[in-house]
Amino acid sequence: MASLNLRLRRVAATTVALALGSALALTGTGTATAATGAPAGGDLASVPLAQGLYQSAYSERNDVLWATSAVGQPPAPVTGSRLLRIDPDSLEITAAVTPPLNGTVEAVYGIDVDDEHNTLWVTNTRNNSVAVYSQRTGRHLATRTNVNHSREVVVDEKRDVVWASSFGDGALVAFDSRTLKEIKRVTVEGSGPTGLAVNERTGAVYAADFTNSRIIEFAPGLRAPRLIPTGGGPLSIALSTDGRSAYTADQTTGTVSVVDLRKGTVVRSVATGEGAKSVAVDRCSGRVAVANRLAGSVSVVDPRAGRVVGSVTTGAYPNHVEVTDGGTAFVVDKSGAGPGGEDGLTRLRLTPQAALSGPPAGTRPAC
Hints:
Largest sheet: 5 strands, antiparallel
Number of strands: 31
Structural class: mainly beta
Number of helices: 0
Strand content: over 45%
């Protein structure tokens, strides 16, 4: 797997020539700068990126950060949407993919990478579908319909399965990542599944049920989904490295809930900030990064101690946080604060010793 170069490089805007095939349109962005509140010498950077940012996903195979963007808030129509290929060092957009037209633009929102098959899976929320793209060329490979208000997607590479949340009808929909066809559908009546996480060791999939403030667990061998209580209005979910705990970002209460999955109970509730929306785990330290949308910040939580150990101000309305296996967090926001109304991307380091200031440049945390 490709490693992530953690040094912050200050580079001028440029167009990068990549041999990625005709499906990828090449582009460039401005220089990465130190983010608001950046500690001296820390690997913390921010850049105005593009309008309409939603989520991101990091590909270890290609050492690339992918992000989705769609312009046009309901009920207004979508006026533009792109899949963005981003250099994780310079934070420059190096290429962009325009989704196909299917009556309307297949605007992209949720995203996850399948490095085994070198593909990208996205949710086309306003088209009630999911789509698959090639990471190598950017080519659109397939669109699969009947995923009502498709919100998020997660890849289980070990089992060649991709799960999507169908918020509109309370379903979890599984696809075969080789054939790209639907293979299973699990419906919980009255639920509103949003964020997803998968335990690749067991094959269990977990969904945050925003409507009922609970977690939906569906595992191989279960006849029916298991329902586990969590904090108020959970939008996002992540699992501990050992798979024994789940963490939910609870938008209503502005907290992160630490849930013991064996016992099916909330063991800790940590206040992080108003509008907690997205959560991700640093696999090396076990710490949890939480994007607080209304507070305009990212909190770093020690789930065992049950406390916030650091926080940083991002652009307004942070929407999603992605953490790589090397301990780098990427946060996309919906601030519109760029010179052309662009939303922003912030990069920061998560380490066991210093949650935000970061280790010396070029080093990685010991796992």
